[in-house]
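batch_manifest entry 22 of 60
target: Myb-like domain-containing protein
source organism: Hexamita inflata
requested by: lab member K.T.
priority: normal
notes from requester: please return tokens only, no post-processing; we will run our own comparison against the previous entry in this batch. if the run fails, retry once and flag.
--- input ---
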Amino acid sequence: MQYDIKLHDGKLFVNIENLLDYKDVIINQLHQIQENLKNQQQSQQRYKWNDELLKKFALEVTKFGIKTVKPKNIQWKFELEGLKNHQIGSHLQKYKLRIQQEYKLKSFDEFENWMILSEYHNDADVIAAAQKWNPTMYTKAQEKEIISEKDYNDDRLLEYYIPTYSNSIDSE
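--- output ---
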């Protein structure tokens, strides 16, 4: 028998006539629905990405090209970690947003496959993958500008590299 129980915006609604006639049955159903929702929420806990996995993700995205990569293209690389396609897709979306912010791009259409986050500018594997897309990017022959900034949170001196690049290869 249908008792017209509906879930809308996280709230359960019951037809008042049915509630009066079948109070005990409906209350049991409501408890069962509540338990199912609680179990569903527990099974969808956030995945915590560690540093090693973040580097692996950056490397795989760069190998495939940030402009063209889709979650299904790299998902098989993360099967051992138990990551699902939707988790990779969510992380890819966040990764792309960070690149968009760092490079001050107006849209994803402006992406170039060689673009990587600044935190990987000193990572040889990720740089090598980026060079596949733009051989003049991150080369040792080019001077890298060293920027020093004072980190006002803990008074440490931070050094990071800003790569220089050109769209054409200069012949010497």
